[in-house]
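Changelog note: in this version the structure field was regenerated for every chain. One regenerated record is shown below for reference.
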Amino acid sequence: MEQSQRTGRLAVTISVGLALVLAGGAGFAVGSMTGSVDSAAATPGVSQSPSPTASAVEPVPGPTVPVDDAYAAALDDSLQLGSETLAEGQSGRSDINQSDGDLKVLNWVETEDPVFFVTIDDGIEKSPEALAVIERYQIPVTAFLTEYAVRNHTDYFEAVTAYGGSVQNHTMVHGALDDPSTDVQWEICETQDRFEKQFGYRPWMLRPPYGAGPKDPDVVKHSAECGINRIVLWNIVVTDDNMVEYWEAPIKAGDIVLLHFGSKLAEGLEMLVSLGKAQGLRPAALEDYI
């Protein structure tokens, strides 16, 4: 890709760093197992039912950041190689996924198993304390990573996802995928190519930044053509201050929990494990259920 093309793709309003932190405050995006329900906001702690007429979540605005020539140049560098040996234990596509390759949007998983699912976004902070909690409880983490934040940190994220989890797609620079100025193909497909090179396998799940645009025609098109067949939203948020925002309290079987790689992630994970245990639930690999 020529430098002029890359710079043009980056000449958009992107939220570098701060926007990823702001993403933790985004509202709930509510989809269905079939992707037939539009995204909608939900009031934390208040029970809501899916509504086919629900309105779309508004992306959280970030600062306008000028194109960084050094960053643009870095994106044109050769893809970084991953570590020599991939961590053992990472899940591949499940039998369910292999037998049902159609693109789906989901906020939760229909299951009677006493499990919930831990998903962690972005990747700005690489906390050894959070990794220690993951290792202590052997939590299967699905890590939705933003490429620019995790480049050259292969070993850390392999360790985070070593208990049945995996690295999945959260775009190149966290652009809102329903924003007309966002290069949707680049955000999704370039991340696919780079993560396949870095981690040794191609992601098959996408989490749109801010939960925005999961049914946008360009998102659906480029997800499908680049190997994505599950767009994963959430129905519980553990905020960066470790407040729990429920779509419907308490935590239940099949719930998908959103956290972020932030400074208080270790404490948030400890709290989440305790909340699950109080309801007779344990964390399980999302990869095995979808």
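Spot check on this record: Residues 3-58+83-288 form a domain with the TIM Barrel fold (CATH 3.20.20.370). Confidence is low (pLDDT under 50) at residues 1-89.
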